[in-house]
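Exercise 7b. Backbone tokens:
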């Protein structure tokens, strides 16, 4: 029995590792791209926020298609196409970084190239993340869906936590061009890992139309979107927030966020089947709101890091808690599409949070973006309570997943 469990975990981890590689690249860029756009290229904080958000716009637009591709043409094919998109993204960043030395006219060209690169990265993220989840479920069986979703999140946020300081270290030591080369090689490694793994045939059946699935998922997706604004603001503006106050170790804040997120999810993931997704989400949102309010009022880098840690603890179980509720009872042939639509709300939040926070920064300062995120968390808590009142037993049958 133990051997079987280890084999199942290993099979889940192998496909989830592909997400790790993609999110490692994303983590590197989160810590470096805002400063590159603002300091090196000379653009405003608003443009720096747009640079970050371009990736999530592409992910948002491609996520439903990624789910449909996984359901109909196969998860492996979806993942490999996504890895190629990430490779192209890295190659474009090499062009942007190499061209900075060409003179004062280059920043505008470099910014345009970066925008296209971020669009490719966002598309690659959605294809790989959604595809590997469905690939993992197909390899181990649908009864292990919660474990596959949990491992995907652990790998993703571990990678972001590792990627942030690694990206800063490489850029500081060898420059942006070296970092761009590394970010091109990483998805090539992912392609080499994915190639020998067997494809899982798509499930037979007739997929439901997109409007029907969207109607089913949107209450949980809306809650996820509002809850994710906090992460989006931290990801987009933590480094600039620290720089504006002359605080050191900005990248460490993203690392602390990722570590606390992963550790909390590993320790408390069992609370979802025990208490239900919505009650767990309600508790987590309350903790996240406290963390964001602390970050809003932080007066030292240590307090800001502590606040980021509290926010991460609260945010850690929001996605799986809402996710198992969103896919519960959905026909197998539609689960990829449902997961794609549900996750698209997360991308929507990150796509909106960058420009919105950029406007807030321009008028009220960096600290105000975290108050904005806390208010969005409060709204998410209200919707969660309404969902729980409408279906108080919704979380009691997670075994059906």
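Sequence design result:
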């Amino acid at each position: 029995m133990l051997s079987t469990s280890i084999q199942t975990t290993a099979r889940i981890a192998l496909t989830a590792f592909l997400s790790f590689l993609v999110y490692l690249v994303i983590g590197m860029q989160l810590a470096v791209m805002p400063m590159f756009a603002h300091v090196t290229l000379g653009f405003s904080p608003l443009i720096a926020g747009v640079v970050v958000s371009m990736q999530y716009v592409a992910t948002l637009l491609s996520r439903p298609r990624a789910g449909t591709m996984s359901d109909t043409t196969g998860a492996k094919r979806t993942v490999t196409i996504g890895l190629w998109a990430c490779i192209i993204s890295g190659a474009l960043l090499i062009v942007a970084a190499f061209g900075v030395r060409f003179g004062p006219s280059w920043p505008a060209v470099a910014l345009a190239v970066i925008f296209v690169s971020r669009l490719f990265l966002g598309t690659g993220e959605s294809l790989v993340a959604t595809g590997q989840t469905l690939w993992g479920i197909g390899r181990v069986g649908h009864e292990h869906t919660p474990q596959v979703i949990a491992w995907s999140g652990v790998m993703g946020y571990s990678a972001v936590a590792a990627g942030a300081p690694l990206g800063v270290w490489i850029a500081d030591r060898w420059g942006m061009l070296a970092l761009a080369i590394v970010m091109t090689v990483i998805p090539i490694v992912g392609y080499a890992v994915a190639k020998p793994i067997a494809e899982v045939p798509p499930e037979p059946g007739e997929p439901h139309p997109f409007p029907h699935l969207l109607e089913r998922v949107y209450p949980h997706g809306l809650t996820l979107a509002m809850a994710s604004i906090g992460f989006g603001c931290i990801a987009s503006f933590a480094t600039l927030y620290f720089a504006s106050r002359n605080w050191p170790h900005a990248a460490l804040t993203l690392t602390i966020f990722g570590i606390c997120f992963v550790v909390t999810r590993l320790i408390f993931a069992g609370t979802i089947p025990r208490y239900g997704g919505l009650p767990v989400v309600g508790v987590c949102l309350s903790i996240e709101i406290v963390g964001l309010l602390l970050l809003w009022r932080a007066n030292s880098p240590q307090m800001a890091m502590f606040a980021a840690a509290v926010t991460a603890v609260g945010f850690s179980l929001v996605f799986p808690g809402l996710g198992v509720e969103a896919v519960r009872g959905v026909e197998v042939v539609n689960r990829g599409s449902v997961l794609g639509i549900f996750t698209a709300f997360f991308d929507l939040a990150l796509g909106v949070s960058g420009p919105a926070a950029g406007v807030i920064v321009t008028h009220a300062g960096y600290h105000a973006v975290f108050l904005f995120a806390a208010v969005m968390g409060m709204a998410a808590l209200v919707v969660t309570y309404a969902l729980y009142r409408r279906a108080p037993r919704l979380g009691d049958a997670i075994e059906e997943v």
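Instructor comment: The CA atoms of residues 245 and 300 lie 9 Å apart. Residues 9-400 form a domain with the Growth Hormone; Chain: A; fold (CATH 1.20.1250.20).
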